[in-house]
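Lab manual, section 2.4: Encoding a predicted structure.

Procedure: take the sequence of the chain (345 residues), apply the prediction step described in section 2.3, and record the output as structure tokens. A sample record is shown.
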Amino acid sequence: MIQHFLDWFAFLQGWLFESVVEPFLFYTGMGEYTEDAFEGVEWFLAGLVEVAALYLVLRPLEAALPAQPMTDRRARWNDFVYTLIHRLGFFTMAVFFTLGPIMDHVAGMLRMEGVRPFNLESLVADMPPLWSFLLYLVVLDFFDYWFHRGQHKFRWWWALHSLHHSQQDMNLWSDDRNHLLDDLLRDVFLACIALAIGVAPSQYVLLVSVSRVLQSLQHANVRIHFGRLGERLLVSPRFHRTHHAVGIGHESKGRDIGGCNFGVLLPVWDILFRTANFDERFHRTGVRDQFERVSADGGVRAGRDYGRGFWRQQWLGLARMVEFSRRPAAKAHDSVPGGASGAAQ
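Recorded output:
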């Protein structure tokens, strides 16, 4: 079954490249990008398959087992726009194949100095493909965990990342609701790590695809958990929802890293570094400063606007980054509004 799917996928990739992409490249005089474009078609098709599979599997689950009622369907549609931009591969592909020649040049310079390039698979002789894939997945997830903690530690970075957390109706498309600059930083970081440990381009496509599918499940509006043992083996929708809980699972306080459940795929990093919270409730999601707050003098402060449309959200993210870089840390985070962090009923 799997081999049949792979054969079908390879046929479709070859047909689309030969029928559409290759003629376009030669017509526009960009024939030197033929090899990269062939890999790009793979990213594009993988994204299409992901989007179709997510809709067919997770949408029925969201309808049958919702963690909370959907209050803003337009917000879900906006998240879908983010998904199309990110999942069709243009962003990740551009980063990976831009860095590839740079890393190759660095590797060539090191070889001239007698330094051999590092390959993680070479640590164990004759490592089976499945084991090497899992090894790369675990290593990349380790670095992704620390990247995620950084997004919650540095105020200018949180100003960008808070767009991701501002979705009060979290759904299967919410994983891709990120500021483009935030996405760029993450893709560059992970691509550098992947290239540094010897991940092949074709293998990187599969690693990214598997990771994205699991992260879509985590963000889905589903009342699902994996049980006492499973919750500690793989990040579940409940475990990650706690990370998105208002004033509980995210938002740094002052100079200290705040929040919990930073693991992207594996909770083991949260367990090892004491940031795990296995709360069994399904909390409401959002950012504290989105809600009205009562100040010390009794006045009511309006909630912060994070925007509703794609371009508005991108602009406000940059504005927050500038603002949070200038304001004193004590004023960057407000107390949790009453009732905003309660569990969904």
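Check your result against the sample. The chain has one domain: 35-331.
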